[in-house]
Amino acid sequence: MAQCRDLENHHHEKLLEIAINTLEKTAKGEIGNDLPEDVRALFIDKDTVVNAVGASHDIHLLKIDNREDELVTRVNSWCTHLVDKIHKDEIMRNRKRVKEINQYIDHMQNELDNLECVDIVD
């Protein structure tokens, strides 16, 4: 995201430079009726141009920040869910293994009991 911000800053600088050059050309009358009226309204004075370009830059940075926040939130959520799932799966695996060991112990106990009974009868 830092790279996106750097690119946006570079874009802002170039756009501001182009806008000021266009303002100067408009003031000199070098640009004819090539510009639509709504665009021509932006090129009244330097403050208007700088404010318009600055507002555009601020909106772009806000969008970048919002996207970064969204991505960080989603990654943190994904990580939390993944760790919870791994923890839950490990608990289930552990319980199955303990159950298996208990069943084995019960089986061996039964075998031992049956063995003792057979020895006494003989």
Tell me the structural class. Answer: mainly alpha
- The tally of beta strands, per DSSP, is 0
Q: How helical, in percent, are the residues?
A: over 70%
- Return residue spans where pLDDT drops below 50 for at least 5 consecutive residues: none
Helix-strand pattern: HHH
Strand content: under 5%
- How many helices? The count is 3
CA-atom Rg in angstroms = 37 Å
Q: What do the pLDDT scores average to?
A: 89
Query: How many individual domains?
Result: 1
Q: What is the rounded distance between the termini?
A: 83 Å
Write down the overall geometry: rod-shaped
Report on the biggest sheet: none
Give a verbal description of the structure:
The chain is an all-alpha fold and 122 residues long. The protein has one domain. It is 88% helix and 0% strand. The chain has 3 helices and no strands. The longest helix has 76 residues. The radius of gyration is 37 Å and the shape is rod-shaped. The mean pLDDT is 89.
